[in-house]
Amino acid sequence: MFLDQRRGWLEQARYYLSAAAYPLQLAVSSPTAAWRWFEESVETRQALRAENEALRAQERALEMRSLRFEALSRENGELRGLRGALPAVADHWLVAEIVNVEVNSLQQRVLINRGARNGVFKGQAVMDSAGLLGQTIHVGPWSAEVILITDPEHALPVQIERTGVRTIAVGTGDTQSLALPYLPANADVAPGDLLVTSGLGGVFPQGYPVARVVEVRRDAVQPLAQIQAKPLAQLDKLREVMLVWFRPDHPAGPTLSRGQDQGTVEDDLASGNPTYRPQPVPARPPPARASVSTSASTSASASASVRAASPPQSASHVPASHVPASAPASREPAAAPSRTPASSSSSASAGGPA
Amino acid sequence: MSARAAEPRGRMVVTAFAALILSVLPLPEWLAIARPAFLVLTVLYWSIAAPRAGGLTLGFASGLTLDVFRGAVLGQHALALTTITYVAVREHQRIRSKPAFQQSLIVLPLLAVYEFIVFAIDGWSGHPVGNPLRWIHVASGALVWPLATALLERSHSPR
């Protein structure tokens, strides 16, 4: 309770303090910025021409790929039984630059030069052109701190694109790898599988590429497979990132789209509704079976299993203070299983450690 | 310097500011991990050299600044830094009379206590960073201490 209250005003205090800190952070990063500017300005005409050529070629390739996009999206809409084509789930986006400041040497956080004045909010998705990067955790007026998906505190609900199995990708602290610790040893995963966001968890919409599986180790002793994946985005060579706003009412959108239940669970937890009690978890989930939960589960079954797979102890224990108190990253493992139907079927142990 | 002399408040703030810049300067990764906590060393120095100039206030303010820059729970570094500043101010006469090498032997446990408090609050607030590399800066800070004191002494000794 104390923590929660304290959180309430400290968030405000942090907002102003980070505004005060921002000029200094800019000043510290200015030598690097100046050096970059210098490098760019002395680039030769030849190099520029070559880059221009490459970009033109790339643009042509992208144009060719998107030529059929309109037709395909209309066709998709018709197949789904909708009258018109859906608009893209990404509503609009904003390019932000990385401010080159050390935030924390042991955690993977970066500072970007856009903040609440640009409409950035806490828990916003951050991407680059190759894939997902992370989400904002602290927002100041002109700057925001981003937690990368490879931060050890970050957990991300993902889906294996080939099979539709849902699981959680946890950061390892290394910019080159993500871990999938909650898949049973007999799960259908192979190196080369693409991981996309599953749309659960309320931050990222469904279907954005995240990482590619590079290594699957099945140890006879361990019930769970040890799986490493490599993020698609170049997390260690970031310069510019994209802040994305999503349409919340889109079927692939991140929140409130899979039945009202999820919304109320989230709202109750966030607002600290004392009457809300998640349903008790069944004593022992069935032994891990080959999980082939279909990706396109209907909203009814999804919301039904949401109730059943509510977080075991932690959420019912500290509904109000704990969930907003920790950064979205650490909120994820607690909140994600509650909203991941896969946690009941595919990964029997996901509820345990998380 | 004697306590009667004018307190070097301006210099304290300026050096703390410089130390803050040093501690957020982007460095290559292996160097960043071993980077000593310059701001902590500076605050410790001033609380030993000028114990009546408000070392606790400086410690608290610097700690809060670190919290903002590190994105930590607000008050985490502030508490840790205020605690060790208190010890340093209390024992400043004993610490000040020692040669630089022995001073770094005293600074080492102080930095360890600092890091432990930060580590503990990290854990309690639900952001555990169990990486053993986080303790490196305790050793590197103690190693840098003689150099830091020499530099800081120069900043306020009569020319």
Low-confidence stretches of chain A: 256-282, 288-354
Shape-level CATH architecture of chain B:
Orthogonal Bundle
Count all strands of chain A and give the number.
Answer: 12
Assembly type of the shown chains? heterodimer
Instruction: Give the largest chain-chain interface (CB within 8 Å).
Output: A-B, 34 and 27 residues
Percentage of residues in helical conformation of chain B: over 70%
Q: What is the percentage of strand-forming residues of chain B? A: under 5%
Q: Decide which structural class fits the backbone of chain A.
A: alpha+beta
Query: Are there runs of chain B of 5+ residues with pLDDT below 50, and where?
Result: none
Q: How do the SSEs of chain A run, as a string of H and E? A: HHHEEEEEEEEEEEEHHHHHH
Biggest sheet of chain A, in brief? 6 strands, antiparallel, barrel
What does this entry look like structurally?
The complex is a heterodimer of chains A (354) and B (159). Chain A has helices at residues 2-41, 45-66, 69-79, 260-271, 299-308, 314-317, 319-325, 328-339, 342-345, and strands spanning 90-99, 109-112, 125-127, 132-139, 144-148, 155-160, 166-171, 178-179, 194-198, 206-217, 226-231, 240-246. In chain A, helix 1 (2-41) runs parallel beside helix 7 and helix 4 (260-271) packs across helix 7. Chain A is globular and about 50 Å long. Mean pLDDT of chain A is 71; it is low at 256-282 and 288-354. Chain A contains nine helices and twelve strands. By secondary structure, chain A is of the alpha+beta class. A six-stranded antiparallel β-barrel of chain A has the order 1-2-5-4-3-12. In chain A, strands 6-7-8-11-10-9 form a six-stranded antiparallel beta barrel. In chain A, a hairpin with a 7-residue loop joins strand 9 and strand 10. Among the domains of chain A are: 87-151 and 237-246, Beta Barrel (Thrombin, subunit H); 156-233, Thrombin, subunit H (Beta Barrel); 260-345, no CATH class. Chain B has one domain (9-156): Orthogonal Bundle (Arp2/3 complex 21 kDa subunit ARPC3), CATH 1.10.1760. The radius of gyration of chain B is 15 Å and the shape is globular. Chain B has helices spanning 9-24, 29-34, 38-49, 55-70, 76-90, 92-96, 100-124, 136-156. Chain B is built from eight helices and no strands. Chain B has 159 residues and is mainly α. Chains A and B meet through helix 1 of A and helix 1, helix 2 and helix 4 of B.
